[in-house]
């Protein structure tokens, strides 16, 4: 088996949340490796369609520099700028993709490079944008549950550490980040869990964390 190399690229912060009229910010990138690394930075517009994330190359938000070389132990600042002339409408969502690129010498040596990718959410919002207004539904599937969130508000809603309960019994759980439902959008996620029989139409309790803290919600269970 070919040798592998440890991950080397770090970034901070891990989210950019900008309120108009602020239109620019920075992230810092570091090289923790013992050799130089090449880094590529790209920006994608982030929307949701049919419950799925959709990414399209952005033309109204740019990152500078788009490509850089970091020396061992080196660091650099990347500037992220919204260049669109029109005012922000509600909340605009993007993903800043920071990739460590494998070098030609690594490929030629036959090593397995653990190339690092960081995907950083970037939001530009009107300060008066309405808050998220999530509505939940749960559909029992083979091996778990499809959780759907419809957000009728204009601001995104982040979901982490999600658990589903029927009565006092937790039947499914997803630790860590589950995902975001963007403003005026719908997102759905499959959560593995154990099946429960004969409870279609009953109420399910949803417990999770958002950016503002823990919350509980309820949804009717379908399927099964």
UniProtKB/TrEMBL annotation:
<dbReference type="InterPro" id="IPR016147">
    <property type="entry name" value="Pili_assmbl_chaperone_N"/>
</dbReference>
<protein>
    <recommendedName>
        <fullName>Pili assembly chaperone N-terminal domain-containing protein</fullName>
    </recommendedName>
</protein>
<dbReference type="InterPro" id="IPR013783">
    <property type="entry name" value="Ig-like_fold"/>
</dbReference>
<feature type="domain" description="Pili assembly chaperone N-terminal">
    <location>
        <begin position="10"/>
        <end position="124"/>
    </location>
</feature>
<dbReference type="Pfam" id="PF00345">
    <property type="entry name" value="PapD_N"/>
</dbReference>
<dbReference type="GO" id="GO:0030288">
    <property type="term" value="C:outer membrane-bounded periplasmic space"/>
</dbReference>
<dbReference type="GO" id="GO:0071555">
    <property type="term" value="P:cell wall organization"/>
</dbReference>
<dbReference type="InterPro" id="IPR008962">
    <property type="entry name" value="PapD-like_sf"/>
</dbReference>
<dbReference type="InterPro" id="IPR050643">
    <property type="entry name" value="Periplasmic_pilus_chap"/>
</dbReference>
């Amino acid at each position: 088996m070919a040798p592998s190399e440890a991950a080397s690229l770090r970034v901070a912060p891990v989210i950019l949340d900008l309120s108009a009229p602020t239109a620019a910010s920075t992230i810092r990138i570091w090289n923790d490796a013992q050799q130089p690394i090449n880094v590529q930075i790209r920006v994608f517009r982030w929307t949701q369609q049919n419950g799925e994330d959709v990414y399209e190359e952005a033309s109204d938000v740019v990152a500078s520099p788009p490509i850089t070389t970091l020396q061992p132990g080196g660091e650099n600042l990347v500037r992220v700028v919204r260049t669109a002339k029109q005012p922000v409408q509600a909340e605009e969502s993007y993903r800043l993709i920071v990739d460590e690129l494998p070098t030609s010498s690594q490929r030629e040596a036959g090593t397995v490079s653990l190339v690092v990718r960081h995907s950083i959410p970037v939001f530009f919002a009107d300060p008066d944008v309405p808050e998220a207004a999530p509505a939940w539904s749960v559909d029992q599937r083979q091996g778990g549950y499809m959780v759907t969130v419809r957000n009728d508000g204009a601001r995104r809603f982040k979901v982490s550490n999600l658990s589903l309960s029927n009565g006092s019994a937790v039947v499914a759980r997803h630790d860590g980040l589950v995902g975001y439902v963007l403003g005026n959008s719908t997102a759905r996620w499959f959560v593995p869990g154990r099946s429960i029989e004969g409870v279609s139409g009953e109420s399910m309790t949803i417990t999770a964390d958002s950016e503002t803290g823990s919350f509980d919600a309820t949804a009717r269970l379908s399927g099964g």
